[in-house]
Structures are given as structure tokens and as C-alpha cells.
Amino acid sequence: MDSTDSTGNEILPPLGTAEVRIVAASPETARAVAEVLRRCFASTEQRSYPASESGTRLHLTVDTDSVAGPARSWLTTSRPLFGSSPHSDEVS
User: Fold this and answer.
1) Which pLDDT does position 49 carry in this prediction?
2) What's the structural domain count of the chain?
3) 40 domain residue, yes or no
4) Other CB atoms within 10 Å distance of the CB of residue 54
């Protein structure tokens, strides 16, 4: 399910959060990926939906402002420097 308004524009999650969708062939695989995200970020309870061909789709919202130790250090070092330009293979 896409989050769009009545005009078809995408509705963005609140600042400091990210909507995550996990699609996997088995529910166990999708839950394992969700568990890893929960160890790094505060998150909402996952919502499960069927995907095509007996797969599973999970949705959850993660709070990127409330991160755990390993994720905090990775997020801090992965943020671009102010004023840095995109790499040649990135869309600006």
C-alpha cells in the first residue's frame, strides 16, 4: 500500500522517521530482517501483508532519531559533509 494523498502525491513520514517495507519469499526471512532493524532503531510494531507468489511483505516505521550504538556511529560517519557534491554516479 503506497501512502499518497488524494492528488496522487506521496505522503512523506514525519522528520526523523523512515517507512520500511520488506518483501521476502518467507515470513521467517522478512521477520529476521525486521529484527535486525529493531536492534538498530526504535520502531513501530511490524504490519504483515501477503505478497505475490506466497511471499510476505512487512511494513514498519523506524525512528532514526533514536538509534542504538552501532547504527549511531554508522549514521554519523555516513552523513555527507556540508556543501559536498554528489559522486559522479549519483543523481543530484
Assistant:
1) 83
2) 1
3) yes
4) 9
